[in-house]
Amino acid sequence: MDHKDVFATLQLVCSDVILALNGCRSSSSNAGATDRLLGVMRQIQEHGRAVEPLITGFTAVYHHFDLDAQTPANGYRTLVKVVHSCVAYILQKARYIASNCAGAFFRMDHNVSEMEAYCSALCQLRALLYLAKIILNDNPHGQLYPQEEGGLSERFVQEYISMHKACFYGRCLGFQFSPSLRPFLQTVVISMVSFGENYKKQQTGLGIAALSFFTSGKYVVDPELRGTEFERITQNLDLQFWKTFWNLTETELLSSLTRITSTVVQVNVMLTIPALSLSLPLASDPSLSVSVSPPVAHSGPGPVKVRLISHTLRQGQDSAELFGLSRQEGPQLSLPGGFSRHTAPLSPCLLIHFHGGGFVAQTSKSHENYLKSWSKDMNVPILSVDYSLAPEAPFPRALEECFYAYCWALKNCHLLGSTAERVCLVGDSAGGNLCITVSMRAMSHGVRVPDGIVAAYPATLLTTDASPSRLLTLIDPLLPLSVLCKCIDAYAGTSCQTVQPAQQFDTLAALGQDTVKMLSNFAQGATNWFQTLLEPKATTSSNGPSPSEEKPQVQEYPESPQVQEYPENFEPLRSRCLVDMRTPCTPIMKNPFVSPLLSSDSLLKGLPPVHIVASALDALLDDSVMFAKKLRNMNQPVTLTVVEDLPHGFLSLLQLSKETQEASDICVKRIREVFQQEEPPADQRQAGSS
Predict the structure, then answer these.
(1) 3-143 maps to CATH 1.10.20
(2) Which residue of the set 178, 429, 595, 615 is catalytic?
(3) For the residues 45-49, what does the mean pLDDT come to?
(4) Which CATH code of 3.40.50.300, 3.40.50.1820, 3.30.70.920, 3.40.50.720 fits the domain covering 288-320+348-464+588-689?
(5) 425 by DSSP, 3-state: which?
């Protein structure tokens, strides 16, 4: 449906609701709620009238910011898409209200709360459109990021701090994403909020997680409380909280649950590469060699840990030399039932993987689910690098370790079950950044570059510059701006605070200690939960504005610097949860090996084919679009594929929905192109994925 028809329908349906409510108002037993709903519908009409010309303006020009006509994707398109998703839900709910408000079983209070939440969301999206209009007017033609120095201007930082965001984490949570992922997102947000509530208590991470289970009920039954608390957490809790929460996926308990449904492989072994100098042939003249030193930044020479995954046991993978580098982690090389003990020949292909996690969290263990699937689908060995994490090991330690592991793999490919005739680098998010920068470093050292790069939703600009897609950090439950800034700050090494290494929570001893503490707190946790069930509204009002209090004209903190380009009769909803958030600003962020989007053409010239797989709803979408444009303008081989309706990090959600599986299949297709493998028949692919 054309956007003009959408907004015309919005006005018509809102009028139908107002007419229906006025018709049953005299017989309603809840006149106060009816009046609230009437007011909300009029506010929605007002927002709709203001938003339509903004959408019209963006749709007239947003094609100028695409990579090409075959790839219609950029942050302006995304903002329009998100607004349409919000309006579509309002239309669905409004039609239901108009048809059922006079019924005996109509829940007036519930429907009022729903419409108030989406009215707040539409109000805030209206504000984002005004901000995007500023970006559009300030930037050169076709540019999604500003060209001048200074990064994200102070006015946008203040907008993020002061704008009310809780509505996007309560009833409206995940409305822009695929419906199949919304239950997962709700689980993540509830878990995060519950975990944050108990974070400062003197327990290990698994104990906090266990106690959080008993305190999470209130966030299920009270979406407004959940949204308010999530907003508080994202803006106020330190990096250690995020490292600890994200690393819960590393616990043996959660890993075991994931392992039950993951693909079974014959080889899944951790290796420790010793810190020794390597000698590799020079790419331009193999008769000469180049020396590659082990990583030394910040902590001196040290080993690098990697994970070898192979669906099939191949030559070299059972060698004494490889076992000398390995340590057992579960049933490695145990040949599960149904597998032959025959050793397959060396594969001509080798896939080297760098995991995501914002440079601060997770390891290959968090990503082995899709890596196992890929190893089976393509029948290739995979080496995933567990690089050191920030802020304990800021730039360039991770880059040094990934480059060293890449060089070691080239030299010792026979141990990995490959001849390395074709080598592909693959990474997601932070790992996508490392794929590009490792290749840049290989060129600068004269070492053989990989045959291709597959980067999923890569971070190519580690600054806090504003772009239309990055405005989504104001509404994204997985990548809020405050968290993005913390990760950038940690990797750049500009934080003045010392963060203790994240604990490992996979031992029985830790579980035993936590069980005792969990049981001692069970009664108190249960009491708090039931108390909240009885008095949810009191808790909500103490933490943030309730839906009925969220009036666009009310500004809780008038002293905060505000963007002046809003119309005189409009002000976005303001948050009660303010924090003195400082955006990182250091020359390191503009280092081309940190932000490859800022690289000179000479540093990028000679890169192998780069295949980028991004999401239309990702706050980092513009990173992918602009980097692809940069390479194409240099006549460098590059492809960009943009999937719909998925969040940042969709590879880790492989088994949650059909859409995430299809996105993973796109990555596999691109890797096959690098390996020059033929696509298997459709029926064979179906059998392999079942």
Answers:
(1) no
(2) 429
(3) 97
(4) 3.40.50.1820
(5) strand
